[in-house]
Amino acid sequence: MSSHIYCDGLHRRDFLRIGGLAGVGLSLAQYLQIAEAGQVGPSKAKAAIFVRLSGGPSHLDTFDMKPDAPASHRGEFREIATNAPGVRFCEHLPKLAKCADKFAVLRGVSHTLADHRLGTKYLTTGNRPLPSLEYPGFGAVVSRELSGPADLPTFVAVPGGEETTGYMGVEYGPLNTGQTPKPGRKMEIRGLSINGGITLADLDRRQNLLKKFDRAFDSLGNQDKLLVGLDRFTQRAFAMIRSPKVRTAFDLSQESSAITGMFGEESFPQSCLLAARLVETGVRFVTVSFTGWDTHDDNFTKLKMQQLPPLDAGLSGLFRALDAKGLLETTTVFVTGEFGRTPKVNARGGRDHYPRAMFCLMAGGGIRGGQVIGSSDKLGLGPEHTPITPDDVAATFYHTLGIDITKEYRTPSGRPVMIVRNGKAIEELVG
Questions:
Q1: pLDDT in tens, 109-158
Q2: Which of 137, 107, 49 minimizes the C-alpha distance to 356?
Q3: Cα-atom radius of gyration of the chain, to the nearest Å?
Q4: Which DSSP helix (H) or strand (E) runs through 69?
Q5: Phi then psi for 304, rounded to 5 degrees?
Q6: pTM for the complete prediction?
Q7: Rounded to an integer, what distance in angstroms lies between the CA atom of residue 98 and that of residue 316?
Q8: Residue ranges covered by each domain of the chain
Q9: In sequence order, what are the residues at sequence separation of 6 or more whose Cβ sits closer than 8 angstroms to the Cβ of residue 318?
Q10: Which of 311, 299, 302, 303 lies closest to 342 in space, CA to CA?
Q11: Spatial distance between the Cα atoms of 197 and 213, rounded to a whole number of angstroms
Q12: For residues 211 and 85, what is the distance between their CA atoms, to the nearest angstrom?
């Protein structure tokens, strides 16, 4: 899959630092060697799905329309009613309009970072970026705080994440699928699939040979913690390859027609379907990335033809499928870009970077759906009243998972750092 390039020439892969696994070339066994889960705390939701709308979607053309604004600001799209009283969305989101009772819309979310890289760091960590410290993303923290089944990865990114593991290190990074799923097909994940004519019997023979080798050098292994760790994680790698859970989770052909019928066949809706299956199987955190929102020119054509239809099909399918599976209350869904876009349409028919006003969506995990929290002013220029910060949204997200944002981690240098430095849970959502 080709990497998306933003307006500033940065590739999506450029967001991945040493704290990420994408492009590092780790084998499954190597990944498992550095992927131990942390301690389990009390939790409300048991898992989370984080949907990244990379590039910065326009708030005025989606979930925060301004039909009474001048034509220079309101754009070409009309509003439609939803099944939530008083809540209205863009006309090109009809499926989401029919299930608006299942999620909450945050309007007037505001910050000051109009750069893709910095905005992404802020919205994926809940901490305003500092030059002296790399904060861990949501997936890394959840991987550390919530353990999952031994034969499943704790954190999966579809097709790959932009979240950094920061000072926590690569051991809490994602297992990247490297691709998006196809309708009705099993995904062949590198390191999780058996190819080249190798059978489970072949794997068993190899595993038995390794056990004999380990026994022959047992005294040496017991003296070397690294060797002991390698053996332990190699065994877990075998367990994952053999696991019926893994084979089932990544096989969309195993899903019922009642559920698959809720999703479109494009890459993003199918990725949302996969996310629901992974959570159902026991994966704790799934990131789904959807690029293409950097609409500096021809904004309305791109949104109408390319972006909004799959967004509508994917998110509506995700909310409905989780609800049908009985998983919506135990799965927090968080949808965000890195900023909004300028209220005034530019000379190229596009909208530019605009962090002063943006939207986020939240659902599940005790979130009260069918409501709008916060507001922007009449032109969408900024918050109408008290702004909602990315810190507040992050605090709310962690609250649904029972994770205490005041908990301190230690950096490699021994510096104590709270999970989220500022921000508090939004009471209207979780109170």
A1: 999 999 999 999 999 999 999 999 999 999 999 999 998 888 888 999 99
A2: 107
A3: 22
A4: none
A5: -65, -40
A6: 0.84
A7: 8
A8: 12-192+250-430
A9: 49, 51, 272, 273, 275, 276, 333
A10: 299
A11: 25
A12: 63
Exposed/middle/buried for residue 387 (C-beta within 10 Å: 0-12, 13-18, 19+)? middle
Structural contact between residues 165 and 259, judged by C-beta atoms closer than 8 angstroms: no
User: Helices 308-324 and 267-281, interaxial angle, to 10°?
Assistant: 20
Which position has the token pair 């009243």? 385
* Rounded distance between C-alpha atoms, residue 261 and residue 246, angstroms: 23
Please check the confidence at residue 182 and state whether its pLDDT lies above 80: yes
User: Which one-letter amino acid corresponds to residue 100?
Assistant: A
Question: How far is residue 55's CA from residue 144's CA, in Å, rounded to a whole number?
Answer: 28
Q: What share of the chain is helix, strand, coil (3-state, %, to 5)?
A: 35, 15, 50
What pairs with residue 105 in β-bridges? Answer: 361, 372
3-state secondary structure of 48: strand
Write down the CATH superfamily of domain 12-192+250-430. Answer: Alkaline Phosphatase, subunit A (3.40.720.10)
What is the DSSP secondary structure assignment for residue 376, as one 8-state letter?
B
Q: Which pLDDT tens digit goes with each residue over 210-256?
A: 454 445 445 444 444 334 434 444 555 555 666 778 878 899 999 99
Residue 160 · residue 288 · CB < 8 Å: no
How would DSSP label each residue in 246-300? HHHHTBGGGS-HHHHTTS-SSHHHHHHHHHHHHHHHT-SEEEEEE-----SSSHH
Note if the bond before 174 is cis, omega within 30 degrees: no
- State the DSSP H helix or E strand holding residue 329, giving kind and residue range, or none if neither: none
Any bridge partners for residue 361, and if so which? 105, 335
Q: Please answer whether residues 20 and 170 qualify as being in contact, where contact means their C-beta atoms are separated by less than 8 angstroms.
A: yes
pLDDT value of position 138 = 98
Contact call for residues 363 and 328 (beta carbons, < 8 A): yes
Give every CB contact of residue 167 below 8 A, 6+ residues apart in sequence.
133, 134, 135, 136, 409, 411, 412, 417
